[in-house]
Design brief:
- This is Modulator protein.
- The protein is an alpha+beta fold.
- Helix content is 29%, strand content 17%.
- A three-stranded antiparallel beta sheet has the order 1-2-3.
- The two termini are 20 Å apart.
Length: 83
């Protein structure tokens, strides 16, 4: 992942990518009503799911920074363990 030297704003895709960078995965928007996906470098991907209530978050602003940090961490670890 490339380094970012700009401040992260809440409500942008960059916010989610900052949480995913330590795991070397990429967060992508999949469509207006389809949510987000995390992608590994080998092409494997997984839809982002909030495991606390088993929902698929559709909007970035629907969750707080702490919730997104937990959601992205959980999904990245699950994706990386699927080898």
């Amino acid at each position: 992942m490339k380094k970012r030297y700009h401040p992260v704003k809440h409500g942008t895709l960059r916010t989610l990518q900052e949480y995913a960078d330590p795991f070397s995965v990429e967060v992508r928007r999949v469509g207006v009503n389809k949510g987000f996906q995390v992608h590994r470098t080998d092409g494997e991907w997984r839809t982002v799911v909030d495991f606390s209530d088993n929902s698929i978050p559709l909007a970035i602003r629907d969750r707080t920074h702490a919730e997104w940090g937990r959601i992205i961490t959980d999904n990245a670890l699950l994706l990386l363990s699927d080898d």
